[in-house]
Write a structure and sequence with these properties.
Strand content: under 5%
Structural class: mainly alpha
Helix content: 55-70%
């Protein structure tokens, strides 16, 4: 399978970071608009993150964002699983410490 165009991959990464870095109210509005669940925020980032290393190698993404991308991915990973189901509600977006930290790190990665 052919990899998507580098510009498309970069745009997907930036869009996923934009949603992830957004205020909880904006995230809920985005979820409502597209009629999707909270986990889609993380899934969009996960898909884009999988392409990030290639973007760095192609010179289309600053290598300096790698630590922030990796930290964002790790944060979201620690929040997953059945034991953390309560963290994936729309209400949790505004009160959960993991989501607050993910917003901060995603903001840094957007630079």
């Amino acid at each position: 399978m052919k990899s998507p165009d580098p510009l498309l991959r970069r745009r997907l990464l930036l869009e996923s970071l934009t949603v992830l870095a957004a205020d909880a109210r904006v995230q809920v509005a985005w979820l409502t608009k597209y009629e999707i669940g909270t986990d889609e925020i993380a899934l969009d980032f996960e898909h884009a993150f999988a392409m990030a290393e290639a973007l760095v190698e192609e010179g289309r993404l600053d290598p300096g964002v790698r630590p922030d991308l990796r930290e964002t991915n790790a944060l979201l990973s620690t929040m997953s699983g059945a034991d953390n189901a309560e963290r994936w509600s729309e209400d949790a977006l505004s009160v959960d410490e993991g989501w607050c930290r993910a917003r901060q790190v995603a903001s840094c990665a957007r630079r």
